[in-house]
Amino acid sequence: MVDYITRDGVALLQVNNPPVNALSHNVRAEIKNGLDEAGQDKQIKAIVISGKRSFIAGADITEFKSGSYSEWPTIIDLCDLIESSGKPVVAAIKGFALGGGHEIAISCHYRIAHEKSKFGFPEVDIGILPAAGGTQRFPRLVGLEAALDLIPSGRHIGAAQAFKLGIVDKVVRGDAVEEAVKFAKSIAGEPLVDRRTSQRPVMGAENAVSLRDAAVKLAMKKKKGMIAPIHCIKAVMGSLLPFEQGMEIEASEGFMLFTSGQMGALQYAFFAQRAAPKWSLPCGASFKTVKGRPIRNAAVIGAGTMGTGIAMAMLNAGIPVTLVEQDRKFLDKGVSLLKLLYAGSVSLRKITQDQCDAILSKLNTAVGYKSLTNVDLVIEAVYENMALKKQIFAELDRICPPETFLWTNTSALDIDEIASATRRPDKVLGTHFFVPAYHMKLLENVRGKLTSAETVASAQMFGTRIGKIPVVVGNCHGFVGNRMLHKYAHESDFLIEEGCWPEDVDMVAENFGLPLGPFKVRDLS
Ligand SMILES: CC/C=C\C/C=C/C(=O)SCCNC(=O)CCNC(=O)[C@H](O)C(C)(C)COP(=O)(O)OP(=O)(O)OC[C@H]1O[C@@H](n2cnc3c(N)ncnc32)[C@H](O)[C@@H]1OP(=O)(O)O
């Protein structure tokens, strides 16, 4: 799990724990053994820590449930061992240095990073904080302001910004490991006193109160209902005390999170989101046995809210889209809406004007279905009317090539009945997008009784490609999402009957952490 390689007086400890080099107990034990071996070997003058393929994505999240994250050596022990090493330790970073991996990196005496590497403390999003000294060392490396920005937000940054902030000592284009080995040789024997992060003062301490208040305000706005950001902020503020005392604050803030229900729920969600795109059918088919067909181009029928949203989701992923309406007036309205949304993204600087132009260059429009003779996929997104949908599917079936997938955006209608209007029921599937379709992550892929495994595989692949979390569901009224939503909507309605105002119900739901309250969602639909 950790290869120990010696190179001309340098010991290279290379973590090899696929898929993401998480710091599982065995990995930690082997890093410790490697550090001990390198420390004892008189021939070794410096140490490089790196990862095969990528650096280290953090603690092994499964260990927070099992409890083995706290078994010796912990990540805290490793960080202390690395920092106090008498021989210089250099982190060679490519790929991800996240969470505990980032904490290991900032405990090293130097950091050499590939230009495409990424840094971050995503702990906040799984309900915890950087509990291996990260809340204490990071402010000492980058200052209070940047630490209060990056730790409670969990935001990833690239190598260039990491260099600007002082996280990284050198950014390289070539092989970060080779550069780090070369660098380690060049600094062997130099004093390390000012290279130990825990010994540094925290910059920006004079503005501590205003920086803290601003961070709390932002966290309450951006991460509504989450307790971890506030504990992160409290722990970072502890860095204004001497290091040992700050570590105690980190531990006590961490303890509250490690024993919270939110930690369990968010870590459940972490694994559930990764499990959802995997699928298997009663016949045994899964991604292991069936390959999906990539979608090279697509058409969307209907330029209303759902149709334009779905078209945007595809355009954002670089898939050329033809937006189709039966009437030029509706088509123009849809295109104007779509352009307005992209113009908004430009003015908010989410994309540049050039990127906007490139995206829109992949948008075509058509009145009627005649031009759909060369598309891999058609997604129908007209209003929920079975007779209309069947009529459209019958017509599409006549015009589109036999291999074209015909999918329907419906939140409740029977996929089998829609498929019965075609001669290709195996290629018919429901794609239930949620409003706004260009933004919401969930995509229910509804399998009818004749939908083929290849169609399911293609829809799951497609969902991931357009940045959704696709999940295969059965064909029943309301599928899964709306069956859950209906209960939630009923309870919200009862509250109105009992005298609450819709805006009050929305406010409570939003303060709990939902992006939009139930009545605002209904206004959008
Ligand atoms: C005593 C001190 C205690 C604590 C201090 C430290 C705390 C931490 O470090 S908490 C962990 C912080 N790190 C993260 O939260 C990173 C989580 N991972 C990711 O964000 C992503 O996986 C990635 C950006 C690193 C890579 O993304 P991608 O290439 O899209 O891969 P997947 O997300 O699909 O993941 C692939 C595979 O790996 C599993 N996995 C990912 N990270 C972890 C992890 N940290 N621990 C355990 N397992 C992890 C993920 O579930 C996928 O598994 P399957 O293929 O089985 O689905």
Distance between the first and last residues' Cα: 51 Å
Which class best fits the helix and strand makeup? alpha/beta
Rg result: 27 Å
Q: Give the C-level CATH assignment of the largest domain.
A: Alpha Beta
What strand line-up does the widest sheet have?
12-11-10-13-14-15-16-17
Whole-number average pLDDT? 97
- Provide a count of the helices: 21
Summed up, the domain count is 3
In terms of topology, how is this protein built?
Layout lengths: L1 E6 L2 E6 L9 H16 L5 E6 L10 H5 L8 H10 L4 E5 L2 E3 L1 H8 L2 E5 L3 E3 L13 H9 L1 H10 L3 E2 H7 L4 E3 L3 H12 L20 H15 L5 H10 L5 H16 L2 H15 L22 E4 L3 H12 L4 E5 L2 H20 L5 H8 L2 E5 L9 E4 L5 H14 L5 E4 L6 H5 L8 E6 L8 E6 L5 H13 L3 E6 L6 H17 L4 H11 L5 H7 L1
Parallel strand pairs: 2-3, 3-4, 4-6, 5-7, 6-9, 10-11, 10-13, 11-12, 13-14, 14-15, 16-17
Antiparallel strand pairs: 1-2, 7-8, 15-16
Helix pairs in contact: 1-3, 3-4, 4-5, 5-6, 6-9, 6-10, 9-10, 10-11, 13-14
The structure holds ligand L2IWW6SD.
Pathway: Lipid metabolism; fatty acid beta-oxidation
Catalytic activity: (3S)-hydroxydecanoyl-CoA = (2E)-decenoyl-CoA + H2O; (2S,3S)-3-hydroxy-2-methylbutanoyl-CoA = (2E)-2-methylbut-2-enoyl-CoA + H2O; (3E,5Z)-tetradecadienoyl-CoA = (2E,5Z)-tetradecadienoyl-CoA; (3E,5Z)-octadienoyl-CoA = (2E,5Z)-octadienoyl-CoA
GO molecular function: (3S)-3-hydroxyacyl-CoA dehydrogenase (NAD+) activity; delta(3)-delta(2)-enoyl-CoA isomerase activity; enoyl-CoA hydratase activity; NAD+ binding
